[in-house]
Amino acid sequence: MADVTMNNVEQSYGETNDAQKNVFDLGAFVGDLTIEEDVSSDEISLEGLQQELEECKNDDVVANILSKGAKLREYTKGVENNLQKVELDSIQDYIRESDNLVSLHDQIRECDSILSQMETLLGGFQAEIGSISSDIKTLQEKSMDMGLKLKNRKVAESKLAKFVEDIIVPPRMVDIIVDGEVNDEYMRTLEILSKKLKFVEVDPMVKASKALKDVQPELEKLRQKAVSKVFDFIVQKLYALRKPKTNIQILQQSVLLKYKYVVSFLKEHGNEVYTEVRGAYIDTMNKVLSAHFRAYILALEKLQLDIATSSDLIGVEARITGLFLRGREPLKNRSAVFALGERIKILKEIDEPALIPHIAEASSSKYPYEVLFRSLHKLLMDTATSEYHFCDDFFVEESMFYEIFAGPFAVIDEHFNSILQNCYDAIGSMLMIRIIHQHQLIMSRRRIPCLDLYLDKVNISLWPRFKMVFDMHLNSLRNANVRTLWEDDVHPHYVMRRYAEFTASLIRLNVEYGDGQLELNLERLRMAVDDLLIKLAKIFPKTKLQIVFLINNYDMTISVLKEASPDVGKIQMHFEELLKSNTALFVEELLLEHFSDLIKFVKTRASEDPSSGSEKAIAVGEVEPLVKDFGSRWKAAIELMHKDVITSFSNLLCGMEILRAALTQLLLYYTRLTDCIKRIVGGSSLNKDLVSISSIMYEIRKYSRTF
Q1: Could you tell me which of 262, 268, 255, 191 has the C-alpha nearest to residue 229?
Q2: Are 308 and 473 contacting, i.e. CB atoms less than 8 angstroms apart?
Q3: Among 14, 163, 398, 644, which is least packed, fewest CB within 10 Å?
Q4: Where does the record place the Vps52 coiled-coil domain (predicted)?
């Protein structure tokens, strides 16, 4: 090892000497060239020298050379000597570390040997790992293949299991279908049987399977047995509906609906039997409901209060007997022929429960037909709603409703047509029209359309009957015998009272509906009663009595119409205008009766100018009798006017207004007379006989307070 080290050192030293020989000799390369020779050369350009010196002045070595002014050759030799010294020092360092280097060399050779062995070992491992990787890849491919086969087998097993489950007929299912009672478990078994039947009928692959040939006969036997059994069961339940006093709705909801799957099963797997069940239910319910409605109608007919007959018309004469002295209607059950009264309450009770006939009969209560009409149709709506929902839930057939209710509709139509043919109650007819409208709204809110056609038909049949009865009232006014109707009485006539109550009733029933056709008919009726009233008034011998008669009738009519509607309608405005014009006529007649000379003078002469100098100038002597006559009896005349008004007019408030109007008009006439006297020459002589305006005003206020 020492020899090797020495050889290396010698070799290194020899290489060092060779390196010294190859050192670049700057002096040999430059030669004896001096700075002066470079400067004096014509080929050397000194351009930019100053700039380069400026850039290098900061370099320590260059600055040191320039400052010392040393020759380049000498500096080069100094550098070479320094390098040789450093090289010798470096060789000595290597010599001192030679032992360590030898040791390091040995260690490296040992490591190289060990690494060579490891390389051989790892090479073997690599070959083995390559073989293992190939095996793993092979195993992975086999695993994937086995996984795919397993997946396919599971899918096949699943499908096969489902097929077996769907097509197999368990013994338990057979026992339940054949021997079991129809209950919840039976219903669940029916559902399983239904799925199996659908499975073998729908899937084409199942139809081609050999298993089906073994199972299908058994399934068909089970289907027939199930259909037969549930048919007998459901028909028995349906016949229970025919028992007397059976609550149909409770039986439907609590019993039949529990077995609605039975009907679904029959519809899917026994259509012919389902048709029989459907027909049996329709027949049963048709008869049961028809009988119920027929019995209810018979019970209601016992509660009916007859309101009007064909002779109960506005313009028909009222036969007076006994104590009825002024043409008043006789006291009878037909008091509501023309007046609505409490009958309108039925529209507020529209959704109340139907009448219970035996309870009403026990209390001896009687009702107008519209009350019975509402109860009958309330029962119809509730029954129809319940039956419509049941048909939809149980049979899933809404159309069945119309077949079931063909019988009840026929029973109700027969009854209603017989009532309608003998109905002469126009107010009752209008109430029924409004009731039908409210019932249509109720059914609309329930979202049940099954009664739409029926209610429309009833409404359509009511309007012509109402129009016919209304025209009878209208013709009774147009064709009335005036001589027979006339009575020597200026108080409101019973025909006019009938008209007012009848019109007010119809107006009140039209407030929320605004029926233009009804308003037109009422206008026709108003024109007819106007003509009749004028004819009756003309029979009175005196104009004053005619006017009083008209005023009393107009005032009464207005009062009745005001109660019917808060809004002033066309008819009310018409009678108010007539009242106003006739009041003005009566005031003139009343004043002429007591102050005819004064009024005649004021109207003909009071507007003349006494100072005009004409031959017919007003003289004091012409006016003096009028002044003295008025002064002597004006209070007595007013008292007579007061008594006349009190006895002439039924309505004291109306009489008060008329008397006030008469006294006000009298004051105006007298004021014009006093103004005329002031313009007459010598008229001041009559001042002592004139009544002061304040006195007349006081008297007017006094009579105003007496009412």
Answers
A1: 262
A2: no
A3: 14
A4: 93-266
Query: Helices (DSSP H) in 168-209: which residue ranges?
Result: 171-179, 184-202, 204-207
Distance CA(574)–CA(525), nearest Å, equals 13
The three-state secondary structure class of 367 is strand
Cα 535 from Cα 217, distance rounded (Å): 97
Q: Give the CA radius of gyration of the chain.
A: 65
> Average pLDDT for residues 273-302, to the nearest whole number?
94
Measured in residues, the chain has a length of 707
Q: What sign has the CA pseudo-torsion 382, 388, 392, 395?
A: positive
Dihedral, CA of residue 116, residue 117, residue 123 and residue 124, to nearest 10:
170
Dihedral of the alpha carbons of 378, 384, 387, 391, in degrees to the nearest 10: -160
DSSP state letter for 391: I
* Nearest partner of 433 among 519, 347, 525, judged by Cα: 347
Q: For residue range 651-677, list pLDDT tens digits in order.
A: 888 888 899 899 999 999 988 888 888
Residue 396: pLDDT above 70?
A: yes
CB 473 within 8 A of CB 314: yes
Cα 78 to Cα 31, 60, 70, 465, 590: the distances in Å are: 17, 17, 11, 150, 167
CA geometry: angle at 341 spanning 339 and 346, to 5°?
120
pLDDT tens per residue across span 185-240: 998 999 988 888 887 776 666 666 766 677 788 888 888 999 999 999 999 988 88
**In angstroms, what CA-CA distances link 673 with 661, 684, 692?**
18, 13, 12
401: which 2 tokens?
A: 């409703």
**Identity of the amino acid at 58:** N
Instruction: Count CA within 13 A, CB hemisphere, residue 361.
Output: 10
Separation of alpha carbons 407 and 284, rounded Å: 11
Residue 464: what residue type? P
Instruction: Work out the average pLDDT over 395-404.
Output: 92
Query: What is the distance between the alpha carbons of residues 358 and 603, in angstroms, rounded to a whole number?
Result: 76
* CA distance linking residue 480 with residue 314, whole number of Å: 9
Residue 610 is classified by DSSP as G
**Which tokens belong to 449?**
């359309």
Q: Which residue has the tokens 């207004």?
A: 657
Residues 551 and 579 sit within 8 Å (Cβ to Cβ): yes
* 478-484 long-range contacts, CB within 8 A, separation 24+: 478/315, 478/528, 478/531, 478/532, 479/315, 480/315, 480/316, 480/532, 481/317, 482/532, 482/535, 482/536, 482/539, 483/539, 484/317
pLDDT(641) > 50: yes
Q: What pLDDT, on a 0 to 100 scale, did the predictor assign at position 32?
A: 42
Contacts of 335 (CB under 8 A, 6+ apart): 329
> Would you place residue 20 in the very low, low, confident or very high pLDDT band (cuts 50, 70, 90)?
very low
**Whole-angstrom Cα distance, residue 327 to residue 333?**
18
Instruction: Determine how many CB atoms are found less than 10 A away from the CB of residue 441.
Output: 11
For 342-360, letters b (16+ CB in 10 Å) and e give: ebeebbeebeeebbebeeb
CB-based contacts of 676: which residues, under 8 Å, 6+ apart?
602, 605, 606, 610, 618, 623
pLDDT digits (tens, 9 = 90+) for 560-595: 998 877 777 899 999 999 999 999 999 999 999 888
169: left (phi over 0), alpha (psi -120 to 50) or beta: beta
pLDDT band at 364 (very low <50, low <70, confident <90, very high): confident
Q: DSSP secondary structure string, 415-438?
A: HHHHHHHT---HHHHHHHHHHHHH
What number is the average pLDDT over the span 493-503?
94
Per-residue pLDDT at 320 exceeds 70: no
DSSP class of 259: G
